[in-house]
Amino acid sequence: MLEDIVAIIHQWVSIDVLIGLTVASIIGFIASLVAIPWILIRLPSDYFDVRIPRYWMKEHHPILRIIGLIVKNLVGFVFLIAGFMMLFLPGQGLLTMLIGISLLDFPNKRKLEAKIIGKPPLLNIINAMRHKFNKPPLTLSPPSEKQSSL
Q: From CA 73, how far away is CA 75, in angstroms rounded?
């Protein structure tokens, strides 16, 4: 049975590509173990509080700001796709997707981030990680009546 599956996969994808994907998966897994905590520890404690406005590269030249926004969104898209793939492959899928979402620009992004990060298991993991590095816990805005009825 396993040999049949390997034979079918080998018809579509060469062994070299499979080895490359395996190596990329291992590198991505190790990189996510280092990068995701590093990013989450360095975030300001009020980063996900929707009451606090966030401006990115506000003080920079408009052309530099546009280039920066394009690069930031491309990196965010890569993180989002990598996080989605990590749901099925080794890695920290949800945290990687959260980083990707926070780098992307789209309507109601801040509300989506707050909803994702507001899940107690995820928030507890992140705050425990931040506590180990003597960083204050993440703060979220209290849910409004409209949000709590959803």
A: 5
The answer to whether residues 138 and 126 touch, using CB atoms and an 8 Å cutoff, is: yes
Domain ranges of the chain: 13-45, 61-106, 108-138
DSSP designation for 76: H
Contact yes or no for 68/83 (Cβ under 8 A): no
Phi and psi for 66 in degrees, rounded to 5? -65, -45
d(CA 95, CA 129): 12
Q: Are the CB atoms for 76 and 100 separated by under 8 Å?
A: yes
Pair 140, 49: CB distance under 8 Å: yes
> Which pTM was predicted?
0.61
Per-residue pLDDT tens digits for 98-107: 888 888 988 8
Locate all alpha helices (DSSP H) within 13-61, ordered by sequence: 15-42
